[in-house]
Amino acid sequence: IMKSNHKKLFGTDGIRGTVNGEKVNALMAVNIAMAAGEYFYGKAGTKRPRVLIGKDTRLSGYMLEPALVAGFTSLGIEAITTGPLPTPGVALLTNVLRCDLGVMISASHNPYQDNGIKLFNSQGYKLSDEVEYEIEKLLYKGPTLTNAKNLGRARRMEDAIGRYIELIKLILKKDENLLGMKIVLDCANGAGYKVGTEALFELGCEVVSIHKDPDGTNINENCGAMFPNEMALKTKEEKADLGIALDGDADRVVFSDENGNLIDCDQILGVLALNLYNQNELKNDTVVGTIMTNIGFENFLNDNNINLKRVNVGDRYILDEMLNNNYNLGGEPSGHVIMSDHTKSGDGLLTAIKIISLLKKSGKKASEFLRPFSITPYKIKNLKKINNYILETESVKNSLKKIQLDLKNKHNGRLLVRPSGTEPIVRILVECEYNDKIDQYISKVQDLLVKENSSEWINTKHQEF
Of 108, 209, 334, 345, which residue is the catalytic one? Predict the structure, then answer.
């Protein structure tokens, strides 16, 4: 398998960086469009090659979208732009419209100063490491431009939101609706600001929407899946049945119960897994998670005769495992959930619709129904200014193995240390039944890494649930 360090531009989830920095600028957008366009030219088998281009609500989308259009049309590829649309919407419509490839302009949950480019193949799936590497090779080779007569045309797709809504509504049977359910929806001032409210309304929900007024610079700003506390508080205030927070490109979702308490995504996966298993619809009795998936979730699945398959962090690695081994449910604690019978990638809105439906059928409160097991206590500490290469040195690897074994043998806990694929940080995850031990082991690892690293380190806020 091609190692990711052979790629200079692509990270865990496409290309991402500060706008007008080294990675993300108008010139890069033109060049990556030419390289990706050359690789995918004619892949859909239609008479005229075409690309679908969506975006979230960042101001820089107005710069990157026309740059991408210029790159693709210079190769003779027709460009279809959708305007603000969730990432999973771009994935689905790329396939439905028989496009050669799809592009989403977004930096997901990052602040507005960042932006990025996510690519999809003609079937609507995210690209493998190997394909990304081939595109980078074409990028450095230079494009093969078409002549003036064969230049591509560009047009706006006016009904993209409506088409996407109709596709995700198919997760419910035609006689199903969500009438009687009151929902608080945090749109993160992002790509789901129109489609989220509209889809839930069409299915019968009473929707209280917040953070639905994007201005180009307020996407993910103290709102959405990264900052769900306001949504949770509003859920309690409104006496709603459930609270939902999307992230900037709406491919992930975080839930709150009626009491304003956040629900761990592994518990959401547990609800979905048990439902599919009881309906004899969970393929190969397996759920795909990541190395970050909570050990409490794994124990819950085992107790119900369901297997857990762990892969690297990133929903495209989850999807790869699902496609290669015929699994139909996967997800990660960050809020990405993939139900491959219905979607091509993580889809926050689709997940929300399914969960609301199951909650309604249960007749129970969210605080009871959506917590089918207890999460093993954990903390994540992020260290900045740590040189990732030290994680590959024998001394550090051996020391971390000793700490891992000690934690497992003494406290039945779990330790994971890894560099982020989307940010310049090293993440330390410790899971253990005893909170005081969690802090002790985090300190051990932190001290080890800082000692081995000459640069300054800064720890960011813990994620605690």
Answer: 108
What's the rounded Cα separation, in Å, for the pair 385 and 424? Answer: 7
Q: Determine contact, residues 441/413, Cβ cutoff 8 Å.
A: yes
Beta bridge partners of 314: none
- Residue listed under structure tokens 């002549």: 147
Counting as low any pLDDT under 50, the low residues of the chain are: 1-5, 455-465
Q: What tokens were used for 62?
A: 């107005």
Quote the tokens at residue 163. Answer: 């088409």
**Tens of pLDDT, residues 294-324:** 999 999 999 999 999 999 988 889 999 999 9
Exposure string of 65-103, with b = 16+ CB inside 10 Å and e = fewer, is bbbbbbbbbbbbbbbbbbbbbbbbbbbbbbbebebbbbb
Q: Which of 97, 96, 91 is nearest to 13 (CA)?
A: 91
The Cα 353–Cα 241 span in angstroms is: 13
Sequence-distant (6+) residues with CB within 8 A of 251 are 86, 87, 88, 108, 315, 336, 345, 346, 347, 348
Pair 396, 390: CB distance under 8 Å: yes
Strands (DSSP E) contained in 277-397 are: 286-290, 307-311, 330-331, 337-338, 378-384
Spatial separation of the C-alpha atoms in residues 465 and 460, rounded to whole Å: 16
Residue 185 is given by DSSP the state: E
Q: pLDDT, tens digit, for every residue of 341-372?
A: 999 889 999 999 999 999 999 999 999 999 99
Structure tokens at 374: 């207890």
Q: How far is the C-alpha of 357 from the C-alpha of 5, rounded, in Å?
A: 42
In this predicted model, what pLDDT tens digit does every residue of 443-460 receive, in sequence order? 999 989 888 875 444 443
Work out the angle between the directed axes of helices 129-141 and 26-40 (0-180°, nearest 10): 110
C-alpha dihedral sign at 398, 404, 406, 409? negative
Please count the residues of the chain: 465
pLDDT tens profile 170-193: 999 988 999 999 999 999 999 999
Which among 324, 310, 315, 313 is positioned nearest to 344, based on CA atoms? 315
CB atoms within 10 A of CB 129: 17
pLDDT of 7: 62
Give backbone dihedrals phi and psi of 207, rounded to 5 degrees, phi first.
Answer: -110, 125
Element (H, E) at 208: strand 206-210
108 catalytically annotated: yes
Q: Determine how many CB atoms are found less than 10 A away from the CB of residue 59.
A: 15
